[in-house]
Amino acid sequence: MTDRIPSISESEWEVMTVLWHGAPKTANEVILSLQECTDWKPKTIRTLLDRLVQKNVVGVNKNQRIYTFFPLYSQDECQQAEAQSFIKRIYGGTVKSMLVQFIQEDSLSDEEINELRTILAKKQKKDE
Amino acid sequence: MTDRIPSISESEWEVMTVLWHGAPKTANEVILSLQECTDWKPKTIRTLLDRLVQKNVVGVNKNQRIYTFFPLYSQDECQQAEAQSFIKRIYGGTVKSMLVQFIQEDSLSDEEINELRTILAKKQKKDE
DNA sequence: AATACAATACTACATTTGTAGTCATCATTT
DNA sequence: AAATGATGACTACAAATGTAGTATTGTATT
């Protein structure tokens, strides 16, 4: 289903985040938003936007003189695609080995662990 | 502690995998190993090895005429570093949100879910 | 209408990555 | 010793990425 999502570079991802947070947005809005957390020049951001459009990850509405941009894939879709390829690259494709590592490290609070347990329990029940 | 691990590209990662699987190895051994699963030319693999050495991710023993190569970081360290930056990039830094997504998708078998539950349970007991 | 401003379009350039090739050298085989 | 073959050193080149700059053009202002 999810047609092959083109790869999104690190900087481009930040632009996507802004658009996922609310779209459509004008280039200027994106620029303002990103200048709060990065020190990229406006032109840089504009270039990133253009590249995302070329890659067909972002759409443009050119009806007005000032274009507006919007994501063509949901954040969820993109996260899953990235995660998929990441896991394949780094963990040889097995999701579990990664999860185990994360659980073993102290990246999770007690509460989070609890939540995860609950989710896992539910998941298991529902699946059968 | 873990000094900043340089970033390892996708192809380079495959070379690392071979070295983690057993080192030291000569370039030739690495090449043979990789030719089973890729169609890279020997020179390509050699270049990747050299770049890893430059990046200080792989060490070389030049005592013999034919060098041997070995990883300077454990697979675990590198996985954690990559995962860290990946999660920051894609999930805004929260480990849990990613785990939840993975659990929700059907990436896990029943058995795996069980294992995870066990691990979580143990983890929680031990922590307090 | 002329000018200034802002948005878009196009161009630029260094670095990293993927993917090798050529040249020099040392060891081994005639 | 000369030729051959394997290693290592250095070079190459296109695509992707990070990071902009210049040129053009439509809109708003005087």
The shape of chain A, in one word, is elongated
State the CATH superfamily name of the largest domain in chain A. Winged helix-like DNA-binding domain superfamily/Winged helix DNA-binding domain
How much of the polypeptide of chain A forms β-strand, as a percent range?
5-15%
Summarize the amount of helix of chain A as a percent range. Answer: 55-70%
Poorly predicted runs of chain A are: none
Overall mean confidence score, pLDDT of chain A: 92
Return the domain count of chain A. 2
- Structural class by secondary-structure content of chain A: mainly alpha
- Across the major sheet of chain A, the strand order is 1-3-2
What's the alpha carbon Rg of chain A, rounded to whole Å?
19 Å
SSE layout and pairing:
2 copies of one chain form a homodimer.
Chain A: H1 10-20, E1 25-26, H2 27-35, H3 42-54, E2 58-61, E3 68-71, H4 75-91, H5 95-104, H6 110-127
Helix pairs in contact in A: 2-3
Chain A binds a DNA duplex (30 and 30 nucleotides) through helix 1 and helix 3.
